[in-house]
Specification:
By secondary structure, the protein is of the alpha+beta class. The chain is 37% helix and 18% strand. The strands form three sheets. The protein has a three-stranded antiparallel β-sheet. Strands 1-2 form a two-stranded antiparallel sheet. A hairpin with a 4-residue loop joins strand 1 (3-6) and strand 2. It is elongated and about 65 Å long.
Length: 176
């Protein structure tokens, strides 16, 4: 499947997945990135550079939001997040989301096999590649509690999602 960058707008178009499911892929990635940020203690540090200071210590940087940590999060995120997608669930409001019914839980309105896992993984890799630098720029050394990865990645970066997630009762703008 191929990604196409449209004109000057740089909107990601992916021919292998319908737009609502491509948005859901991006939302799941952005949620996984947000969760992964909390896996490292915010005051953990890592040495930088090759020279020691006069006292023999190394210069250090906070690791939690370092460029190395952000790339570490993005590396393999598709396999960790979406490798076992097994169906498409439609909620009461008509929004479709990718699910893994093998994890258990209660599912209704699920179409098993509604999407091929390899297509979802390929779409995920395309979204990550398309938005990687913007995510790194957003998170690098940014310790704000109010970081909105979804907006940077899915709305501004890949431009595959609307600015605000639709609530189940809210009509699509195309329906108005």
């Amino acid at each position: 499947m191929a990604a196409v960058v449209e004109g000057g707008s740089k909107k990601l178009k992916y021919k292998g997945l319908e737009p609502d499911l491509l948005c859901n892929v991006c939302e799941q990635i952005s949620a996984a990135v947000t969760d992964a940020l909390d896996d490292v203690h915010p005051t953990a540090t890592v040495p930088v550079g090759t020279r020691t200071r006069a006292d023999g210590s190394y210069a250090t940087r906070r690791y939690a939001r370092s460029e190395a940590r952000v790339f570490e999060i993005l590396d393999g995120i598709c396999e960790r997040t979406l490798s076992d997608v097994s169906g498409v669930q439609t909620n009461e409001g008509g929004k479709r989301v990718l699910v893994n019914v093998n994890r258990g839980g209660s599912f209704t309105n699920v179409q098993i096999g509604g999407v091929k896992p390899e297509v979802v993984l390929d779409a995920c890799h395309v979204v990550v590649e398309h938005t990687e630098q913007g995510v790194v720029d957003l998170l690098r050394e940014n310790y704000s509690e109010n970081i909105d990865v979804r907006t940077r990645m899915c709305v501004q970066g890949a431009r595959v999602c609307p600015p605000e997630p639709r609530t189940p009762t809210e009509p699509k703008t195309s329906d108005l």
